[in-house]
Specification:
By secondary structure, the chain is mainly β. It has 2 helices and 30 strands. The protein starts with a helix and ends with a strand.
Amino acid sequence: MVRKVLGVLALALVSLQATAQSCFRDGMVWKSWISGTTDGLGTGRVEVSVIDGVETVDGVTAMRLYVYDEGEESLRSLRAYIRTEGDRVYFRKPGSDSDKWLLMYDFGLKAGEGCYVYDAAAEDGEACRTYMRCAEVTAGDGNGPAVMAMEEYKDESCSGSVEQAVWLDGISSDRGIIYNSRYGMDGRGERLVEASCDGETYYAADIPVNTFFFKNMSWKTQVASTTDETCPTFIQTATLDCAETVDGYRQMQLYCSYDNDPGSFELEAYIRIDGDKVYFRRLDSDNDTWLLMYDFGLRAGEGCYVYNAYSKNEEPARTYVKCVGIKADKQCGWTVMSLEEYDDESCGSLKGTGAWLQGLASVNGLMFNNCFGMDGLGGMLLEASCQGKVYYHKITSGIGKVSGEERAVEKCYGINGMAVDADGTHGNGIVIRNGRKWLKR
């Protein structure tokens, strides 16, 4: 199973054989796709880390590592000083009171060996230390670097919980240069998409449409009858948990609970991501068939068949959805995909219209991904969040029928990720409001 994962990673590697000595030099650039759930930035972004210049730090020659969001180089900040010793990479925070260099990577580890490393992504406070054990090293495809399958533990006893990690020999982790450890913690989502220097590419991967499908993500949906006003309205909470690799697929468990059924928390389906696409597999499926739930990569004029994820005790309804427009909604801060729904790809008779928030869910709720114009139960997405961080929230005119005026609540954060008032009463500067950057004056 590990070999399958490593084989897929190796296909993304291109160009030169990498070593710590060749990659960690002036001008080296790492780009990571960030879909973080704890930094308050909401929608996806490309983060750039670059080595620019050297200086002597307490008698040691070190490289300067800067970090900034792509397109905002003028706002870059010095994140760390970097130096190498053979296959090992060390870092030190600027302004640190200690003259101690902390281990970031040891690319010389063999299968069965391990070492303590420190979290290079930490900006404030003491860098967290964890123990990384090399489980397997697989030679890269062609000229690509070796792929190191790592296991992350609390300490060298290698007991207790374990997180699976990947290092690309001589380059960085598969998440990016500063994301060397703390896999599976804090709900962070990072992915290395490019590593290069002076026109030489060491690693390249496609930047995906940012999808908010990761462990601990939850969606709250108001569900009501569209034909019988006497039927009670209830709130469904769908939560992703327990990512694991099964039959070569990285899948998560989707649990659902209901406010009208205290104590309910049942496994509803399995979810997996493939680029821009989201698939689900029902528990009662007689085979391992994965059904398409969302394709957030659709362009205007394109369409696909999707299956209704809310179908219970019956065959999931299949319909053809066609994207007729994609537009950034400044009010809610999300990109909205306008959809038309038909029986099939001939697009003969229009059955209904709907909308998806790109990368997040249908505006009708996570599991109400299609069947927009059909009678029965209808939904409305109320909130999407992860571990207390809210990415989408609506205030309705009341709990009852799925109708009435709704408005998006603006979530506002400082550049440091701390919540601030959206009305600007906490000073001026750059803030993140519903996933978009604004300059308060």
